[in-house]
């Protein structure tokens, strides 16, 4: 009986010594992982550049002027538009694309930048805007 209590005492002591190795005073930062996950999902946040597809027609060129800040909307399940952020138009890239920068909110691929009757679709910041 004495040896059983001795074993329990030794095991308790060993477990209590090992416990602090598993407790962290500060948790590791999730930021790098979150940034990678957002990039894979096509999510852009303040300061990141993005690419917008537009029709290239004159009405769009008149509405989307370089340095304009344009609201961006996301279509819900009931087809209603909800404002999710704003972008600043940086430049036109070719005939069909705009390069922009997120100035507010969280913008995803598939969101819609809209000003008046003109609209532009947010696409990934891939080769089209380089």
Which key features would you list for this structure?
single chain, alpha+beta, Elongation Factor Tu (Ef-tu), domain 3, 6-stranded antiparallel β-barrel, rod-shaped
**Might you state the CATH topology name?**
Elongation Factor Tu (Ef-tu), domain 3
The helical percent reads: 25-40%
Task: Extract low-pLDDT stretches.
Answer: none
Order of helices and strands: HHEEHEEEEE
What is the CATH architecture annotation?
A: Beta Barrel
Strand elements, count = 7
In whole angstroms, the N-to-C terminal distance is 78 Å
Q: What class, by secondary structure content?
A: alpha+beta
Instruction: Indicate the proportion of strand residues.
Output: 35-45%
Number of helices: 3
What global shape is seen?
rod-shaped
Rg computed from alpha carbons, rounded to a whole number of angstroms: 26 Å
What is the CATH first-level class name?
Mainly Beta
What is the arithmetic mean of pLDDT? 78
Largest sheet, order of strands side by side? 2-5-4-3-6-7
Domain module count: 1
Largest sheet: 6 strands, antiparallel, barrel
Q: Could you explain how this protein is built, in words?
A:
With 130 residues, this protein is an alpha+beta fold. The protein has a single domain, classed as Elongation Factor Tu (Ef-tu), domain 3. 26% of the residues lie in helices and 38% in strands. It is built from 3 helices and 7 strands. Strands 2-5-4-3-6-7 form a 6-stranded antiparallel beta barrel. The longest helix is centred in the first third of the chain and has 17 residues. It is rod-shaped, with a radius of gyration of 26 Å. The model has no long low-confidence stretch (mean pLDDT 78).
């Amino acid at each position: 009986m004495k040896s059983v209590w001795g074993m329990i005492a030794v095991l308790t002591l060993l477990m209590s010594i090992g416990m602090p190795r598993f407790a962290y005073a500060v948790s590791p930062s999730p930021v790098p992982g979150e940034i990678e996950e957002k990039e894979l999902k096509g999510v852009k946040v303040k300061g990141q550049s993005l690419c917008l597809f537009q029709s290239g027609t004159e009405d769009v060129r008149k509405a989307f002027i370089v340095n304009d800040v344009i609201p961006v909307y996301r279509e819900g399940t009931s087809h209603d538009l909800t404002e999710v952020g704003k972008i600043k138009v940086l430049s036109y890239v070719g005939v069909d694309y705009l390069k922009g920068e997120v100035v507010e909110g969280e913008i995803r691929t598939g969101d819609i930048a809209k000003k008046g009757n003109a609209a532009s679709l947010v696409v990934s910041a891939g080769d089209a805007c380089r």
